[in-house]
Amino acid sequence: MDEHMIEQVGGQIYTFGSYRLGVNQKGADIDTLCVAPRHIDRNEFFTTFYEKLKKLSEVKELRAVPDAYVPVIKMTFDGIELDMLFARLALQAITKEQDLCELSLLKNLDEKSVRSLNGCRVTDEIIKLVPQQESFRLALRAIKLWAKKKGIYSNVLGFLGGVSWAMLVARVCQLYPNAAAATIVNKFFLVYDQWKWPQPVLLKHPDSDEAAKQGLSFPEWDPRVNHKDRFHLMPIITPAYPQQNSTFNVTNSTRNIMTMEFKRGLEVTNAIFAGKDDWESLFKPSDFFTRYKHYIVVIAKAATADHQLEWNGLVESKIRFLVANLESIDHIILAHVSTESFCSKSEDDEQTKWFIGLEFGRTDNVNINLTDQIRHFTSDVYHKAVNIQLYKDDMVLDVLHVRKKELKNYLPQDVYNRVGLKKKSFVKRNSLSMSPNNDTGGNSPDVNGHNETNKNLNESSETRKRPRTSDSVSSDNSNSIDFKTNKNSSDSSVPPKRARLSDSQSSDNSHIVDFKNSGSGRSANDSPITVRINNHNSFFRAKKNGSVVTESEYLPQQTLTIL
Predict the structure, then answer these.
(1) What is the model's pTM?
(2) In order of start, what are the domains of the chain with their CATH numbers?
(3) Residues at the annotated binding site for ATP?
(4) Which cofactor does it need (predicted)?
(5) Catalytic annotation on 144?
């Protein structure tokens, strides 16, 4: 192109999500969309543009995920986390005044561009559909802070992401169009405590007829037509065409946890409105690390920071499948994954830990074997890493069981003290891998804006009328396993009189833990449960060249037997 045409074609960066809604918090990332004219294709975005970003001194932690459901480039730019999507419009030029909400723009676009565009289109639709934007923004700030404190703010782990929380609050604003922000917060818990899931949450009727007139036929969420949509547990439908369910990651456990928190939130806000409590109580942190007696710990390790960054993203995206696998076990009634992960660094590697709390139902003497569920999860992670050419030799995935009293060995000291666990000296338990894992360093995220939100809510509550206790919900619903064989390794933390290493292939080489039933309301006389996670079974491995090893090539692994 000549210089004059280059100046005319343009191209724009749009924001969406929390930043676009005006409810972003200090330290949060910014969701952006790069919109290019028709002569720029997606491949150039992930190649030449990516290479240009690499050369910028302001860009850190740069990584591209071109094969994601919504392809994205992630980076830290000048200290600010950015997620950048890409969409190519069938236009010769992109001007600063370009409106992305026009249906005609979707003509002749590929599905990935439509999904990317929907981030901005959904955000703009939410703003248009809310009666009072100031009340909406303040109420949404409070709900987002509450969700983060309660550990239920994470789309990738099976809870709700920012856009889903925004749509839930927007629906309550529609039901109570003249309410102040404090009342909206109370009504939020009232509405969703009584909501009959999987009844969908809709902000408006779908635009299917108008889209058909425009000649558009992109897939939409419709359980009458799409069989898979019938199995969504907590559907919250985006208001922009093509309408999609923003909560397809939700599992039975995560839905149960969120509905339990809705009920607790209603009790607290009712007490606040009755003058028996204050807003601080609503934002008390989750009791995750004291709620359960037994936990599964997932540990992702890599030798370098760059490898760990990539490995973390993949492992985290698969943890919700492990939760679903654990849910399939008859005696596990709840598998609760914490949205808080913990990073640490040692001379040998960098690692990230995630925790899953387990709650068991009443049982007689039972053996619970988690081998198949763990194997399915770890194999899936390694296969995916190889298939997308992400796997490196230093990437290791460990999965282990710990009791509540042993969390001190895996949590950073400041977190351990914060959650109020008793300070005792424990003997370190055995990891399913043969390598010791003594590092307890790490950082825990903090949510900013807590006091400011409380102050604004109090100001809002002073201007509202006291709610009637008979208020009801409107019926309007239209709207480790260590996979790298190491024959010379040993767990130095295991007391020599209580454990032994064996290369035997006998049926008794397993990791066995006996413990009492967990969960609230359990009787002290309940029968013990035995959890068994076999450690010698043939698991997935990858050769150095990245090819997948068949089962016939698997090598025997060392095993650890607790005596």
Answers:
(1) 0.77
(2) 3-122 (3.30.460.10), 149-282 (1.10.1410.10), 290-419 (3.30.70.590)
(3) 16-18, 29-31, 83, 144, 153, 162-163
(4) Mg(2+); Mn(2+)
(5) yes
